[in-house]
Amino acid sequence: MASSGNGNVANGNGTARNGLPAIHTHKKHVNGICHDDSGPTVKAKTIDELHSLQKKKSAPTTPVTGSQTPFATLSEQERQKQQLQSISASLASLTRETGPKVVKGDPAKKSESQVHHDHHHHHHHVATPTIAVSDSALKFTHVLYNLSPAELYEQAIKYEKGSFITSTGALATLSGAKTGRSPRDKRIVKDDVTENELWWGKGSPNIEMDEHTFMVNRERAVDYLNSLDKVFVNDQFLNWDPENKIKVRIVSARAYHSLFMHNMCIRPTPEELENFGTPDFTIYNAGQFPCNRYTHYMTSSTSIDLNLARREMVILGTQYAGEMKKGLFSVMHYLMPKRQILSLHSGCNMGRDGDVALFFGLSGTGKTTLSTDHNRFLIGDDEHCWSDKGVSNIEGGCYAKCIDLCQEKEPDIWNAIRFGTVLENVVFDEHSREVDYSDKSVTENTRASYPIEYIPNAKLPCVGPHPKNVILLACDAFGVLPPVSKLNLAQTMYHFISGYTALVAGTEDGIKEPTATFSACFGAAFIMLHPTKYAAMLAEKMEKHGATGWLVNTGWSGGRYGYGSRIKLPYTRKIIDAIHSGSLLNAEYKKTEIFGFEIPTEVEGVPSEILDPINTVSSFPSTLLTLFFFYLLPMPLNLTICFDLCILQWSDKKAYNETLLKLAGLFKKNFETFTNHKIGKDNKLTEEILAAGPVF
Question: Region Disordered: what ranges (predicted)?
Answer without folding.
Answer: 1-20, 91-128
